[in-house]
Design a protein that fits this description.
Largest sheet of chain B: 18 strands, antiparallel, barrel
Number of strands of chain B: 23
Number of strands of chain A: 15
Oligomer: heterodimer
Helix content of chain A: under 10%
Order of helices and strands of chain A: HEEEEEEHEEEEEEEEE
Number of helices of chain A: 2
Distance between the termini of chain B: 42 Å
Radius of gyration of chain B: 22 Å
Radius of gyration of chain A: 18 Å
Strand content of chain B: over 45%
Number of helices of chain B: 2
Largest interface: A-B, 33 and 42 residues
Shape of chain A: globular
Strand order of the largest sheet of chain A: 6-5-4-3-2-1-15-14-11-10-9-8-7
Largest sheet of chain A: 13 strands, antiparallel
């Protein structure tokens, strides 16, 4: 199994939707991992669990998928966004992500290209098909909302192990699955959170749930991940991600479909000049 | 009725891009299993009311039209070959002669390693600034009733593009020139004379068949985006010369001179601040002149952008644009169901002011409604050439997406 690069990346990268929430491998060696050692200190055990989950997220090269985002306000009114996503992982310059919108229809063909820089700060370009215009735009701050949803960029950005301080919080049973709960505290002052609680299942180290606490320490949001399926023999991916904001009553559901891995995408498919060819 | 020889209907220079296109297409192996096609389009019902209906030149006070903008893409050979087709149809429902059928795009594109080759009618955008784009010189642009007053016409071309670590280089051959259209309000200046809709003069003896060329290099250095471009050939922007019609009436005759236009673009994206500038210099029969736009954008999250820019044109009030010494401030607000924009121009010399505002809202999955307003204050006669883009107006459009 390949190890994932662990590069420090202070800024968020939308890239990530791919690396989404620490995809976990299906390694059978769960019980032998240091993450299961109950004699370790809570800090070490929490960090070991995060490292194990990260280790199992393998280098998949590239992926393509369809993504449906449903935004719901507190009255239950829904708005739907549909997009296609392409991700290229682990190039020398950092991860590359291309999002192409299909719905709403007036945005159809609009594309967002993100180059995640290992040394911090993303580069983003927007392609406006009606004008054939490629526009360099200001990359959103990590605590900003991703396309008006309840997801912040940092929620969908690559969740590098080094970005947090960990502490093992306890064991729990979530939807019948035995889970390890880890508290993590973002190290970057630009984060919108004071801490997060992450539920990993104790076998495959898949993220089942995350609770987000705002800067004042109040519970802000809960993310649930459902419908995990195994791809290319070692990658677990959730079909559905549901984020509920407890303070506003709004929620966002992300549904993933038609995952494809190692489709032969290359760096040139993620260059600024390729934006005009996106359909 | 005598039949026209093909050579008359389809002059060699006109057909050159198409011939090249079909020759290239003929070389390709098309695997039936790998062809992918997709299409979409828009149907627009647009209405505009102008405040200056009684002005000189017999301008119409209202415009009402139907626009159809289908768009299709066909891909084959694993996406390395594609054909894009985007016709444009406007039906002028009030019969002011603004009906139009145009090919905005009919282009084949092929990819070979780092090379991208294309042939056909294409639209190209160059530039970085918000208020206007002085370096955007490849396509002919016709004044239209929209708020910012331009629509681009497809430019026949053969293009080669190379994407390398040191930048993106594009080379274009432009074998056929498209004239600016002066139908409807576009033809009425702040002048009692009309613009000729038939007679046109060219500096080149080849007229519209003069083969132009253009080259552009662009690159990203971290936070900085740079581009340099050059166009040699027929100026897209005509000068208007006094002439007479066959019947002896005085009118304006568009004159297209040969020119060399060199442009540069700069953008520095640092956090929420985006510093932008673009400038060009070109030769003309009146000597070399230059124009530029520069300023900044401030992004509040990804939903609000604020703009402040200044535009200069060394021709001053002789410029064919209203952006000769103009300050601009503007804002764009995105919200869940649409967007709103507002922009304010002040000409620091003539004192002319233009306020533009637009509001677009989604209605369900298939419709958007666009509401627009433009207010023009000051002495309109100070910039006679700019009439099509001045004047106060209200506009409404209902767009159906299919």
């Amino acid at each position: 199994m390949m190890f994932r690069r662990v590069t420090p990346r202070p800024a968020p990268s939308i890239m990530a939707m791919a690396l989404l929430l620490v995809p976990s491998g299906a390694s059978p060696q769960g019980l032998e991992s240091p993450a299961q050692d109950p004699s370790a200190s809570p800090e070490n055990r929490g960090r070991d669990i995060a490292l194990e989950a990260d280790r199992r997220g393998s280098g998949y090269g590239d992926l393509r998928a369809r993504l449906t985002m449903v935004l719901r306000n507190r009255h239950g009114d829904e708005r739907t966004r549909q997009m296609r996503i392409r991700v290229l992982e682990g190039t020398a310059g950092g991860d590359r992500t291309l999002l192409v919108f299909d719905r709403p229809r007036d945005l159809s063909g609009t594309a967002l290209l993100t180059h995640a820089n290992p040394d911090g700060g993303d580069d983003q370009w927007l392609y406006l098909p009606a004008l054939k215009r490629v526009k360099r735009i200001a990359a959103s701050g990590q605590s900003g909302s991703f396309m008006g949803s309840e997801f912040a960029y940092e929620d969908i950005g690559s969740q590098e192990v080094e970005k947090y301080r960990y502490r093992f919080h306890g064991e729990d049973t979530l939807d019948g699955e035995h889970s390890l709960v880890v508290e993590r505290v973002p190290l970057d002052g630009g984060s919108g959170y004071s801490r997060q609680l992450v539920w990993f299942d104790s076998e495959a180290y898949r993220v089942l749930q995350i609770e987000y606490y705002d800067r004042r320490g109040d519970r802000l949001k809960t993310l649930r991940l459902h419908g995990y399926r195994l791809y290319v023999e070692c990658l677990w991916r959730p079909d559905v991600m549901e984020m509920v904001n407890h303070q506003t009553g709004k929620s966002t559901t992300l549904t993933w479909e038609e995952y494809e891995f190692d489709t032969g995408l290359r760096e040139r498919d993620f260059e600024r000049g390729a934006l005009g060819r996106v359909r | 009725m005598r039949s026209l020889p093909l050579a008359t209907v389809c002059r060699p220079l006109v057909c050159r891009p198409l011939v090249i296109l079909f020759v290239i297409l003929g070389q390709l192996e098309v695997g039936p299993t790998t062809v992918r096609a997709q299409w979409r389009g828009e149907l627009v019902v647009g209405a505009r009311a102008f405040q200056d209906a009684e002005g000189p030149g017999g301008r119409a006070g209202e415009e009402l039209d139907l626009e159809l903008r289908p768009r299709a893409g066909i891909e084959w050979s694993h996406g390395t070959q594609r054909l894009d087709i985007a016709p444009f149809l406007r039906v002028d429902l009030l019969g002011d002669g603004r009906s139009q059928l145009d090919l905005r795009e009919l282009a084949w594109t092929g990819l070979w390693n780092d090379w991208v080759v294309s042939a056909g009618f294409r639209e190209v955008f160059w530039g970085v600034t918000e208020s206007s784009n002085v370096v955007d010189v490849i396509n002919q642009r016709s004044p239209a009733g929209s708020l910012d007053g331009f629509e681009k016409l497809g430019q026949p071309m053969v293009g080669v593009r190379l994407d390398r670590a040191w930048g993106l280089v594009e080379l274009m051959l432009l074998p056929w020139f498209r004239e600016r259209q002066f139908e409807g309000r576009a033809g009425s200046l702040w002048s009692p004379l009309a613009v000729s809709d038939g007679a046109t003069d060219y500096e080149s003896e080849a007229g519209r068949h003069h083969v132009d060329w253009a080259v552009r290099w662009s690159h990203t250095f971290g936070d900085v985006d740079l581009a340099v471009a050059h166009l040699a050939g027929t100026s897209r922007e005509p000068t208007l010369q006094r002439g007479a019609s066959d019947g002896g009436h005085e009118l304006w005759i568009p004159y297209y001179e040969l020119t060399d236009v060199t442009g540069a673009e700069f953008q520095w994206t640092t956090g929420a601040w985006l510093w932008k500038a673009e400038a060009m210099t070109r030769t003309s029969t009146d000597g070399r002149y230059g124009a530029g736009v520069g300023g900044l954008e401030y992004a509040v999250g990804d939903f609000l952008s604020l703009f402040a820019e200044f535009a200069l044109d060394t021709r001053g009030s002789d410029a064919l644009t209203s952006f000769e010494n103009d300050a601009y401030i503007g804002a764009r607000l995105l919200f869940q169901d649409g967007q709103a924009r507002v922009g304010f121009f002040v000409d620091t010399r003539s004192g002319n002011r233009i306020l533009r505002a637009s509001f677009q809202k989604r209605l369900g999955d298939r419709f958007t409604a666009d509401l627009g307003a433009r207010w023009h204050g000051g002495d309109s006669g100070a910039e006679p050439q700019c009439a099509p883009w001045q004047g106060s107006l209200l506009s409404f459009a209902l767009v159906t997406y299919f």
